[in-house]
């Protein structure tokens, strides 16, 4: 089949925010289906696996029975959350109530301004009326700016819209002009009342979603406050989702979070949430049927006239294998973290190489893939440099160890010898063993695992198995193939060619 590649501009963007093909080529990944069916609310995945794509799909869906609101980094009142933290409760619970309040006000905003079925029942008129009066009297509008909900200038009118216990009447708290800074004093009781009004007001025939994305912006693993704020959000989401289920309502607070950040969080019942409420976005793994090949085929269809659903073998000349008898798809997949953004970038670089090659055949050949690797490898290294510094500030020295070793596949003795040449005796606390372990943690290195139920050996990559643990006794290692060009490595040393 003859196709025209010369007219194709690109296969999309690596950034979901700028990807013009995102909506047209969106795939209903199981993580997306779990979310919209209100089955799982915590969507986990590496940077670039598609969390923001799902987030954008949900918040951009327009339907008379489908309502959503998306919070992103600029919306988060981090400083005010800190000020609203409750003292005298466990740290992991300290910020739960401030998140609950933010979610309730966001949902009220949707009910009052988007859902034309409201009030959906005559019996819900009073709840919706109380909710509207509280919002209008406290914020001056039924459509408040979510970034200003905790603004110091705001005064909340708790009475007469929200009923608190009589104890509060003599507590010295002005419930008709409560400074928002004093909200923590009554926030539990306020949230309980508003939760009841919001849940009752939800139309049982409609779907409602409040989504949180970009929670990794500004993340600092050494900042306990930030960690506890994230825990508070997850617990707040679970609490409100559970309340909606008990009332038979189709409402979900959905949290999109990097899996490496989630691993750092420690709180009670985390395992229950992981097992029952978390959905991990994966591609080309034993745990999923979703593949990056199919994802790219959707994009090929969108920009190349005449190609069908199974178009990879039409666009790529897979009859001619790469070195080692590898198919081009596997060759490219091995150089990714099995993320959509990596494969999109690689295919775009192959397209660019093809256009400059002068090749007349309208299929991508081995030479196009090889020519694309330099630019792709630089991109891949930059992606790692975007993520790793906060976790491993001296990561450049770790990469220097690999540059000194000089080959992508090596043994422990070669690593130790290269370490001595580059860093001497490591008097500043560095040692080769720790560096190798850190490089494994960030999927820059894999170690060879021997034996097992099936016998033989394999290289263990953490990006492909998040639960994998480093083996301190490992003797053979491999640098990620996507970094070979950017780090200036050879494939392997002559002494290891027979092993390869």
Structural notes for this entry:
This protein has 500 residues and is of the alpha/beta class. It has three domains: 30-280, no CATH class; 292-387, no CATH class; 395-496, Orthogonal Bundle (Arc Repressor Mutant, subunit A). It has 17 helices and twelve strands. The protein has helices spanning 30-36, 51-60, 78-84, 96-113, 125-139, 187-201, 224-246, 259-264, 270-277, 292-303, 312-315, 328-333, 340-357, 366-387, 395-405, 412-423, 432-441; strands at residues 42-45, 66-71, 155-156, 178-179, 207-212, 250-258, 278-280, 407-411, 445-450, 457-460, 476-479, 490-492. The strands form three sheets. A five-stranded parallel sheet has the order 2-5-6-1-7, sandwiched between helices. Helix 7 (224-246) links the parallel strand 5 (207-212) and strand 6. Mean pLDDT is 89; it is low at 494-500.
Give me the secondary-structure topology.
Elements: H1 30-36, E1 42-45, H2 51-60, E2 66-71, H3 78-84, H4 96-113, H5 125-139, E3 155-156, E4 178-179, H6 187-201, E5 207-212, H7 224-246, E6 250-258, H8 259-264, H9 270-277, E7 278-280, H10 292-303, H11 312-315, H12 328-333, H13 340-357, H14 366-387, H15 395-405, E8 407-411, H16 412-423, H17 432-441, E9 445-450, E10 457-460, E11 476-479, E12 490-492
Parallel strand pairs: 1-6, 1-7, 2-5, 5-6, 8-12
Antiparallel strand pairs: 3-4, 8-11, 9-10, 9-11
């Amino acid at each position: 089949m003859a196709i025209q590649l010369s007219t194709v501009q690109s296969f999309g963007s690596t950034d979901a925010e700028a990807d013009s093909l995102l909506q047209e080529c969106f795939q209903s990944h199981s993580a997306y289906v779990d979310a919209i069916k209100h089955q799982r609310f915590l969507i986990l995945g590496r940077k670039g696996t598609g969390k923001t794509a799902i987030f954008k799909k949900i918040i951009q869906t327009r339907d008379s029975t489908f309502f959503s609101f998306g919070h992103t980094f600029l919306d988060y009142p981090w400083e005010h959350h800190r000020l609203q933290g409750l003292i005298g409760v466990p740290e992991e619970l300290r910020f739960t109530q401030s998140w609950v309040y933010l979610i309730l006000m966001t949902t009220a905003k949707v009910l009052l301004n988007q859902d034309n079925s409201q009030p959906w029942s005559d019996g819900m008129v009073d709840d919706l009326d109380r909710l509207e009066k509280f919002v209008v009297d406290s914020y001056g509008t039924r459509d408040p700016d979510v970034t200003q909900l905790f603004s110091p200038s705001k005064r909340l009118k708790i009475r007469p819209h929200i009923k608190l216990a009589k104890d509060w009447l003599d507590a010295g708290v002005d419930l008709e002009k409560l400074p928002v800074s004093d909200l923590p004093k009554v926030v539990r009781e306020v949230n309980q009342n508003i939760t009841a009004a919001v849940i009752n007001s939800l139309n049982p025939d409609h779907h409602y979603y409040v989504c949180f994305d970009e929670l990794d912006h500004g993340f600092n693993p050494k900042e306990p406050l930030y960690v506890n704020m994230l825990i508070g959000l997850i617990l707040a989401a679970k609490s409100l989702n559970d309340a909606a289920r008990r009332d038979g309502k189709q409402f979900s607070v959905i949290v999109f979070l990097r899996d490496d950040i989630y691993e750092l969080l420690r709180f009670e019942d985390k395992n229950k949430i992981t097992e029952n409420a978390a959905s991990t976005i994966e591609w080309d793994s034993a745990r999923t049927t979703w593949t990056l090949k199919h994802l790219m085929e959707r994009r090929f269809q969108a920009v190349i006239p005449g190609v069908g659903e199974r178009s990879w073998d039409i666009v790529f000349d897979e009859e001619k294998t790469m070195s080692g008898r590898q198919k081009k798809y596997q060759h490219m997949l091995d150089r990714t973290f099995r993320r959509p953004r990596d494969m999109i970038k690689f295919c775009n670089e192959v397209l660019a190489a093809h256009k400059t090659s002068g090749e007349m055949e309208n299929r991508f050949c081995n030479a196009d893939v090889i020519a694309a690797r330099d630019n792709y490898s630089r991109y891949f290294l930059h992606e790692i440099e975007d993520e790793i510094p906060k976790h491993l500030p001296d990561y450049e020295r770790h990469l220097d160890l690999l540059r000194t070793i000089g080959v992508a596949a090596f043994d422990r003795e070669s690593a130790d010898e290269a370490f001595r040449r580059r860093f001497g005796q490591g008097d500043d606390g560095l040692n080769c063993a720790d560096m190798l372990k850190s490089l494994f943690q960030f999927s820059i290195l894999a170690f060879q695992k021997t034996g097992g139920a099936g016998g033989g050996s394999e290289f263990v990559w953490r990006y492909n198995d998040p639960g994998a643990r480093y083996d301190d006794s490992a003797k053979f290692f491999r640098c990620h193939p996507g970094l070979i060009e950017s780090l200036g490595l050879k494939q392997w040393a002559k002494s290891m060619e027979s092993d390869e």
